[in-house]
Amino acid sequence: MHIRSEVQSIGAGVMTLLLAFPVNTFARDRSKTIQQAIDGGRAKNVILFLGDGMGDSEITIARNYHVGAAGRLVMDTLPLTGAYTTYAVEESNPSLPNYVTDSAASGTGWSTGHKTSNGRISTVAGANYISPIPTILELAKQAGYLTGDVSTAELTDATPAVLASHINARGCQGPADMSACGIYKKSNGGPGSIAEQLVDHKVDVLLGGGLQRFAQKTDAGPTVVDQAKSLGYTVVTDAAGLSSVSKGQRVLGLFNSGNMSLEWSGQLALPGNSGPQKCLENQRPSNEPSLADMTRKALELLDRSEGNGKWPGNGLPGFFLQVEGASIDKQDHAENPCGQIGETIAFDEAIAVGLAYAKSHPDTLIVVTADHAHTSQIVDPGTSHPGSVSILTTADGANMYVSYATEPHGVSQDHTGSQLRIAAQGPQAANVVGVTDQTDLFHTFARALGLE
């Protein structure tokens, strides 16, 4: 009896643990789900969700804080997952890798299938001439697909820029920002700044920040906004304006002068620890649409199906859409854990919109990934830390210590060179499994859209 009571006591303890960490979170059999997800066919649509700076640490920090260690984010539910490498190449010697990429070189990788050097936008490393490399968006548009580019950064920032512009330096965002890109100026016979090129490419849906770049005057005199209107764009600057845009209109949405406002706020990490803290949510001004709102509207405008996923008989192709959660990276640089987490959760909510669309449009390839890893790490509270630390009280009611230590406090924190998660569902999604490279993603998209 004594032994039995001990066994019963141990069993009760195990049951308590299992109730705290549900069995189906860790142990459910997903074999059939994964088998059903392996589809090598063609896609009508492709949606790339790109979390800038969203390495595994950033995902884990957001998960722990928002839903707890045993919880799962929407991005965790995609059936096929792998990792990909992110290195760039050296500008002075493109045969050598640069192990820590920036957003421009990494975006060039998945958008063109070619490596380049940090700072370049879809151009050849080492080239001292205009050297555009065709992008997946350009190829899709040529094949008749509708195209969209959505970001919480300025639309002229590196990640949205790589799809529909080609320039030797990522800082050449508007006509007044071209000091490092002389041969690309329109007055010198080039294609112009990033802002000018984005609208010249006639991307069907452009939504994000960066009004200050598009308000600049071109070499010919009018502003880039004027240029966009002459090319048939409806230009909107707030959430109400976006909601009024009708299907069939080409739209340029510019919802902030610079990057779009943050969703959450809180204390910065500090040397010697800051906190414990709970983040302040719902901080975004109501006149700026959320990333989920922009994604929902982009899908509405780009969708060519007749409802219930049925495709018209006229043979028209679907769309290619990139959606970037940009300020995960920017707040990681700034040692701002609440800003970083809030942007990750907002990005996750946008993914939920995409997955809901795919549920009724199963011929949609969805890919969720990042461009480079970043600095934030969950660290042991029982040790000393050389960098800045924030203590966050999570959904579990426990304290989580988040460290930023690639640079001294107050200095912009660094990217890191780790491989990244890539997850997918839909046609060609199995190509993300294993360890691939960012350049391989271009070919996955191209095969899915019938472009190679």
Describe this structure as you would to a colleague.
- The chain has 15 helices and 17 strands.
- With 452 residues, the chain is of the alpha/beta class.
- It has a single domain (44-373, 415-448), classed as 3-Layer(aba) Sandwich (Alkaline Phosphatase, subunit A).
- Helix 4 crosses helix 14 (337-360), helix 12 runs parallel beside helix 14 and helix 13 runs antiparallel to helix 14.
- It is globular, with a radius of gyration of 23 Å.
- Residues 1-26 have low confidence and may be disordered.
| Total count of domains | 1
| CATH hierarchy class name | Alpha Beta
**What fraction of residues sit in β-strands?**
15-25%
Q: What level of helicity do the residues show?
A: 25-40%
Q: What's the CATH topology name?
A: Alkaline Phosphatase, subunit A
Q: What is the 3D form?
A: globular
| Biggest sheet character | 10 strands, mixed
Structural class comes to: alpha/beta
Put simply, the count of helices is 15
Radius of gyration: 23 Å
CATH superfamily: Alkaline Phosphatase, subunit A
Number of strands: 17
